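Lab notes, practical 5.
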Amino acid sequence: MPVPPVADVMRPDLDIIDPEPARRRRRSFMVIGAVMVLAGAVGFAGLLNASGERSDVLALARDVSAGQKITADDLRVVALPEDPGLKPMAAAKKSAIVGRRASAALSQGSLLTSAQLTGRGGLKPGESLVAVEVKRGMAPVDALRPGAIVSLVTRPQEGDVTGTDQRELTEVSGRVVKVGAPSSSGDVVVQTAVPDAASAAVASDASAGRVAIVLKTGG
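Output from the prediction step:
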């Protein structure tokens, strides 16, 4: 029986497959995917722009303590969509704000509003600055900070008789602007913002050493 040639036995009858079309299809899918991602990003940006006009406003670049003078480095400009419910300070007012003081503690990243500011001297309209020298033990000196809300209470003079016509300051609300260093006797001068109408009475009683300072809750 004749033996077939070796070449006919070893050669399989298989189709030759070219892998190149599969690679080309994968590249096509990658290109299409990239185009779709780019189109989505452009569409999202368009929606943001269409959501409303944006304006430059001021935000805090770092924490600012109550009573601290605001510097240019404390502020940064951010762009926000206009919202009637928000009333942040416009970026154009930055130069006018530098040098004013914070009426309360301000946190980094928060928007700046006019209600968070006091005058360049630490005073609001209708306030006067009074230096109150308090005796040792008549104020929680270690707890007093600029911006703290306090009550100024006048103690009776020695020998005062109840029911006399002598004018007496009972209690006046105020706000700490600055706390001085204690003297050798332990007395401390506290610069306090008080209403204009009460400033003369506070100054008079403070000069007599009769004023005590009470730190209010949340102050």
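Observations recorded by the TA: The mean pLDDT is 77. The first strand starts at residue 54 and ends at 60.
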